[in-house]
Amino acid sequence: MKGNNVKLGIAPIAWTNDDMPHLGDYNTFEACLSEVALAGYDGTEIGNKFPTDASVLNYHLDLRDLSISSMWFSSFLCSESYESNEKRFIKTLDFLKNVGAKRINVCELTHCLFDSTSSMFYENKPIANDSEWDLLCEGLNNLGALAKERGIRLCYHHHMATIVQTLPETLRLLNNTDDDKVYLCFDTGHFKFSDEDIIQALHACHHRIGHVHLKDLRHNQVINAKENGYSFRISVLNDCFTVPGDGIIDFGPLFKLLDKYAYEGWFIVEAEQDPAKANPLEYAKIAKEYIDSKLKF
């Protein structure tokens, strides 16, 4: 992207799944970092196997000339005290600051269906009431202010099987939070899985995007998931997600629009897959080659 300060990374979830640790439990974080570097990426996000000692992680990053872009943070602002959320958040911010990251990806997990065996579609989709929305938006503003003080942007991650999934829900969150404290982690796969038009979503949210996840979907598997009422985990295990270049999304128009809006930050390839079926290095290279070809405009 001409003239923009953009880095390309890939999430460690391709090597070891945070929600289902048995997927890739044999992969070490050292192997993950080495293959991220070997595939030509600039960095990654924090995974569940990464060292919690910043100095140890920095050592391994420096060996491979890699950077950390961000880290997931599970908020429970609608169901737990703000103080308990803030305490965990500050600890995470301090760690991210020590590894040089500038983003934290927050997702509200009150009512989420990540661990559920129930369908995540249609009438089963989690929703929040008005009082919960007030707690969420107020809490995000407060957490975002703490992040801003440390030079880190809070980027809210809209996500399947949660209370902030669709474009209208995402816009409600953005419209009721401060634009200098709460940004958006724009995820192509989650908007597409939720039947949203990605380009329309980008037009609507471009002024708040602080981080981008590049996720793709497999058409037939997504159709099966919706027809059979899959849970989130079953959707992962049945290969709904994949990397750019191996699915149904044409990322060319998306990149051109992000370039037009002068996006600066990270692109993170992210696809929840079973590494025993989708070799992480192979798919990392597929995504890298595809993205490189689409960014030549």
Automatic annotation (TrEMBL):
InterPro entries: IolE/MocC, IolE/XylAMocC-like, Xyl_isomerase-like_sf, Xyl_isomerase-like_TIM-brl
Residue ranges occupied by any Xylose isomerase-like TIM barrel domain in the UniProt entry: 35-285
UniProt-listed Gene3D superfamilies: Divalent-metal-dependent TIM barrel enzymes
Listed name of the protein: Myo-inosose-2 dehydratase
Organism encoding this protein: Staphylococcus succinus
Lineage per the UniProt record: Bacteria, Bacillati, Bacillota, Bacilli, Bacillales
